[in-house]
Amino acid sequence: MSIIWSLLLVICIIFSCISSDPSVVIDSITSSSKNAIENVLVIASMLIFWSGIFNILSNTSTLSKLSKKIYNIFSFLFKKDEVSEKSKEYISLNIASNILGVGNAATINSLNGIEEMQKTNKHKEKLNKSMAVFIALNTASMQIIPTSMISLRALYNSQNPEKIIIPVIVISFVSLVVSLISVNLLWRKNE
Question: Is there a domain that residue 117 lies in?
Fold first, then answer.
């Protein structure tokens, strides 16, 4: 695959140099590189900040209290015998990260949550329903404060970077409902 991407890149650069001024191509490459590094720094700084907050919380009793409250809201989605106390904590952290719009920080919690759920899984070679629901929750990721997108919009000098909050809430809620309904319908069909 890397050969194909490298070949496409070389062809694009050659075609751009032939069809226009080579200095335009070089300027475009350097400005794109600068933009990519700025994007990475913005996203990485937010990821580091929220990971640090979650790490601090994990060393206090606040995290366990918060986890119980968050999990209680979503507990009806999971089967009690398929979810351990540790996986409840990871599920709650994942949901909290997604609600805050920090999906990158949610990734590690989702991986740890699935790993913990696998320990209680009776059929090790396939997912149980709670694992499928958790994957749907993580993928649809209900967001109330799309922090990453607001930061990127602010980076690119948007007039109102926070103006996407209402559309993101609506779309993420709809995608969450559709994904949970889909998991339940498909699970019933395959039982």
Answer: yes
Kindly write down the DSSP assignment for every residue of 92-154, as one continuous string: HHHHHHHHTT-HHHHHHHHHHHHHHHHHT-SSTTS--HHHHHHHHHHHH---SS-HHHHHHHH
* DSSP SS3 for 158: coil
Number of domains observed in the structure of the chain: 1
The residue range of the domain holding 171 is 39-190
For residue 16, is it within any domain?
no
Helix 22-58 × helix 147-155 angle, to 10°: 140
Rounded Cα distance, 38 and 94, in Å: 26
Q: Per residue in 115-149, pLDDT tens?
A: 999 988 888 888 888 899 998 888 887 778 787 78
